[in-house]
Amino acid sequence: SMGTWVQPPDTPQIHLHPAAPPRLGMEVMAPATINALNGSSVKLSCTFNSCYKVENKQFSLNWTYQECSNCSEELFLQFRTKIMNKQLDRFGNRVEFTGNPAKYDVSFTLKNVQLEDEGTYNCYVLNPPDRHRGHGKISLKVLTK
To answer: Which CATH number belongs to the domain containing residue 127 in this structure?
Structure first.
């Protein structure tokens, strides 16, 4: 009788549908925690990579601040074709954008750090045609001498 034919284990499998390539979403790099000395200047570093070069007309960046983990996010720095400081009273004019989006760097510097600046800083980046919005998160701790 004809036995059931069993495929030998070393036969290469034929896949009619090639596996989907890994999603080439944006990746954002930011340190999880930054310690800054009260009164000093500190760079809050946020960089990203993307398959697409940055076009100012498309690119957008938001930096938000959260005083506590379930506090609402307050927008204080935004890039839309040009950089705009939505200065929260808490930061006065101490926020300076020191990144370069064309080099995938959206860092900013916070001058004269105060104890009240402690909290979470969120960096959101969108670089169309990439549809994925990148998010970096930094916890800032302020140390006294």
So the answer is: 2.60.40.10
Cα of 37 vs its chain's centroid, Å: 24
Cis peptide before 128, with omega less than 30 degrees from 0? no
CB 54 within 8 A of CB 47: no
**Structural domain for 117, as ranges:** 27-143
Q: Can you tell me the distance from the alpha carbon of 131 to that of 140, in angstroms, rounded to the nearest whole number?
A: 29
- Quote the number of domains for the chain: 1
Burial class (CB in 10 A: 0-12, 13-18, 19+), 85: middle
Q: Which two tokens stand for residue 29?
A: 């790099």
Residue corresponding to tokens 């001058």:
111
Cβ atoms within 10 Å of 7's Cβ, excluding its own: 7
**What pLDDT, in 10s, does the model give residues 103-142?**
999 999 999 999 999 999 999 999 998 888 999 999 999 9
pTM: 0.80
Q: Do the bridges between strand 134-143 and strand 33-37 make them parallel or antiparallel, or are there none, so unpaired?
A: parallel
Query: In degrees to the nearest 10, what's the CA dihedral of 114, 37, 123, 98?
Result: 100
Amino acid letter, residue 60: S
* 27 and 125 Cβ atoms separated by less than 8 Å: no
